[in-house]
Design goal:
Order of helices and strands: HHHH
Largest sheet: none
Shape: elongated
Number of helices: 4
Length: about 130
């Protein structure tokens, strides 16, 4: 297995056309849970955002590495601005917990890519269709 490419079977990966509705569903569910009484504690919010970000990476394996945390940041923003409509203040503690949950899921992916680059695993120019 060393030096061989690992491919995901076609039946295991969702089609890319489902990524937007799936991402919206994951984001809406995360927002709903974080605004419910379940998301009141610091650790619960960390786990909610960690689980949601990890789930997005698992269910959408062909999404670009930076797109998942970008959408997660929008969900963090919405989870903090939504209570403002009701007259509540933004909680720095909740923002910190949400961001830590996202960073805990994203961090290992970026560390793994950094290691690949250090080992010389750099994509040749033109590998992606958008680079043409």
């Amino acid at each position: 297995m060393i030096g061989q490419n690992v491919t995901i079977p076609a039946f295991a990966a969702l089609s890319r056309r489902y990524y937007v509705p799936l991402g919206a569903a994951i984001g809406a569910a995360t927002l709903a849970v974080s605004l419910s009484p379940i998301g009141d504690s610091f650790m619960a919010r960390i786990l909610i955002f960690y689980a949601a970000t990890s789930l997005a990476y698992v269910l959408m394996p062909f999404a670009r590495r930076g797109d998942v945390p970008l959408v997660s940041a929008w969900v963090v923003l919405l989870s903090e601005l939504t209570p403002c409509i009701g007259g509540e203040l933004i909680s720095p503690t909740n923002v910190t917990a949400d961001a830590l949950g996202v960073l805990m899921a994203v961090g290992p992916i970026y560390v793994a890519r950094f290691r690949q680059v250090q080992q010389g695993d750099i994509r040749p120019a033109g590998r992606r269709a958008s680079e043409r």
